[in-house]
Amino acid sequence: MGLKWEFPGGKIEEGETPEEALARELSEELGIDATIGRKITTIRHNYRNGGVIEIGFYTVTEYRGEMVNHIFQQMLWSPIGDLPTYDFLAADLTLIRDLADGKLL
Q: Are 69 and 47 within 8 A, CB to CB?
């Protein structure tokens, strides 16, 4: 879904925990060695085409290395309150609203 904003991450491979998968994905996508913290929330999203996904969102408590954009068109840091102004993937919109409203901090 090109030209939409999204959070880094991806599919869990066989034998991985969600936290291990996120750490691997952050390494592959951003070149960092991240320490994964607590789960913030889980969102299940039904796409209009019939596809269903379940996404777990986690905190990153620290990371080592300098972020390098390996796969995204653009990346940036943004204040939480500004997140709703970006065109995110539909599956992320509930999280975006809850973060901006201070419900998940």
A: no
pLDDT in tens, the chain (105 residues): 678 998 899 999 999 999 999 999 999 999 999 999 999 999 999 988 888 989 999 999 999 999 999 988 889 999 999 999 999 988 899 899 999 998 886
Distance CA 39, CA 2 (A): 27
Is 4 in contact with 74 (CB distance < 8 Å)?
no
Write phi, then psi, for 96 (nearest 5 degrees).
Answer: -60, -50
3-state SS, residue 43: strand
In this structure, what token pair is assigned to residue 12? 């869990």
Residue 3 · residue 35 · CB < 8 Å: no
